[in-house]
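Why do we care about 3D structure at all? Because function follows from shape, and shape follows, mostly, from sequence. That is the central idea of this module. The next example makes it concrete: a single protein chain, its amino acid sequence, and then its structure expressed as tokens.
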Amino acid sequence: MKQTDIYILSGFLGSGKTTLLKEILKKEKGIGRKVAVLMNELGKVSIDSSEIDEDTPLKELLGGCVCCTIQDEVEAQIQTLLVEEKPDVIYFETTGAAHPVETIDGILSPVFADCLRFKGIITVINGKQWLERATLNAPVQQLIIEQARHASLLIINKEDQLTEAEKAKISFELQSICPHAFTILTTFSKFPFEKLLEMESQVYENIQKTSIHNLHLSTFVYTFKKSIAADQFETFLRELPDTIYRIKGYVPFHQAKYPDLFQYSYGMPLFMKEDMKMPLNMVFIGENIDWKKVEEALNKL
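And the structure:
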């Protein structure tokens, strides 16, 4: 089965994500991969989509953020791109208000999880905005830090507006927050494209696992081969590490005609009855997790 690479472009409002996307698309054209773009805007009208060439398949998600109000629409648009366009790679430019964990959760549907290979997060930081972040309200400050902390590739943009001392200060602070990421200072979002291509996922045995440098934030897809006991599954959930943030998928329980839709968010489980057969995939998102142990525990159910 063909797997499509998918990257998330993250960064707060005004950091330069669309400029970065245009730079990436130019490089992708040079190596001949078929590219598709997902673009999420909080408003009802897209401002940035006109920047993308007409020959690049583009789906827009307007009027909400992927991490809360339009997750179902995200899944539908990705499914459409996979079926109609069959791209080699998808770039998902998020809104400036999107949290990285919720964004990954939004794009990894159990329905097509085995068709996508999540490659990582590219975060753009506006250098001046980073230095002046203390003037922003507390939730926004925390969001900007989270967008940086979960990146595989950190692009500190608009370096032409910074002094040498400011460049050193920003680099030091970001490397302290996100030591595993490749960090580069740049202007107009220019960066060495090979660093993006090096964001490789790892696959071993029947686990599809994206390791974002040293098991920082990673995903894991498990496929059930048989039905399981509900009480054993609940025991499994209670024993999970606190740094598993999200789980969603379809669980086949004994005596049930159809699988249950299961969702888990920061320790809170939710089961919903389904009335049709669904792919028995379960998607996990966590930080510094040994997915081999999780797989072994699931296999014992």
